[in-house]
Design a protein that fits this description.
The structure is a homodimer of 155-residue chains. Chain A has 155 residues and is an alpha+beta fold. Chain A is built from 3 helices and 9 strands.
């Protein structure tokens, strides 16, 4: 597949979302001196969820995938700064990322195996777990494997 | 900080890199029916490295960060499809992502703590471990914490 075809399939959007809390403690860089978060007695940079979907649906439709990731970001209270999706041929897989004021959500799909690998990285007061039900509803997986990483954990 | 300032600081590039192996087995969607990879007797979708840098340098310069991630992608043999970086105020942190034909590399930096969280997700024949020395050279961290996740591991 020539590079031109990939570029043509690339979709870029810079529309900011409606969660306009850029000046609050949720964002990467406002209103507080220490941008690490505290939870359960731990202090760290951000929560990173790795979410594997098996037996999932609608993994080859970039418009659906884009919508799902945006909805997932909004559900977590995040602010979308930028999104970009690619649709690959011939397997129909989609790669996409949504850049947030609070980090990012990414997805890579393998429709031929009904598999998708998602990661949800959020700092500040956003709760990445609130994204998971939205992703379940969008892709209706038979099973989900989820692991949580606390990035930048201070010992 | 108003949303307009974030948008202005956003940098987008769609220049494809020189690694033009989009038609080979390295890419997400060409030339083979089964896009999962095999390594060490395991079969999985892709290798995902989570790399935390501590005591790191030059974390507040989006041009430097962009260059470092692109160089890291190229070192791994990956093909860059798209990159996007944001520079946050007032802490000077940078969030960025490079979308690859073989998945993605992302970074989020906390210059006030000399900390950066990077993730390198690569499918196909790309070796994400080849990105790590490039990132070490670019950010000169005092210490690095690395964890490897095999996404979509078939049991």
């Amino acid at each position: 597949m020539p590079m031109e075809a990939f570029i043509q399939l690339g979709m870029v959007s810079d529309d900011p979302s409606e969660n306009q809390d850029l000046g609050g403690a949720d964002s990467h860089g406002e209103a507080q001196k220490d941008y690490f978060v505290e939870k359960d007695g731990q202090k760290f940079a951000g929560m990173h969820l790795l979410v594997d979907l098996w037996g999932a649906h609608d993994l080859g439709d970039p418009v659906h995938v884009d919508r799902a990731l945006r909805d997932a970001a909004m559900a977590a209270g995040a602010t979308i700064l930028h999104s970009h999706f690619h649709h690959f041929a011939p397997n129909g897989g989609v790669s996409g990322v949504v850049v947030l004021a609070e980090s990012h959500i990414s997805i890579h799909t393998w429709p031929e195996r009904d598999f998708a690998a998602i990661d949800i990285f959020m700092c500040g007061a956003c709760d990445p777990y609130l994204s998971v039900p939205v992703l379940r509803a969008a892709f209706r997986p038979e099973s989900v494997e989820l692991s949580e990483q606390r990035r930048g954990l201070l010992s």
